[in-house]
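WARN retry 2 of 3 for item q-0093 after timeout on previous attempt; input resubmitted unchanged.
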Amino acid sequence: MVNPDAVVRRLLILNECLSELARPEAAIPQQLAANSMLRAAVERWLQTAIEACIDIASHVIASEGWVPPASGREAFLVLANHGRLKLDLAQRLGTAAGLRNLLVHDYVAIDLAQLAHVVERDLQDLREFAVQVAGWMGEI
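OK item q-0093 returned
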């Protein structure tokens, strides 16, 4: 059974991270290059936001007794296969999971222009996931 408290806590963290990432300077590569504290914060907020989505997906999958995914990327596809997400959103969230892995494991290879681009243009998928999860929670 899905634990509503576990999901809501992660949705709150996701919302907080998305609010912080909405700062205009978070999407400017030159600002990220000039301010190491800002860069570290943006990387951490983004990592945490994506991780919250992966955690929610993994929790729902485990709670439903579905076959566990081999990766965060795959977790979103499992949700799509069970009708919880549209496939195109699941695929984009899978790409986000790949970015999370880059932030955690290959942090020396972060391209600041790409990071700023993601912050400026790609956070809507995380917001859409939060909206859909909130809808599921209303059904429980």
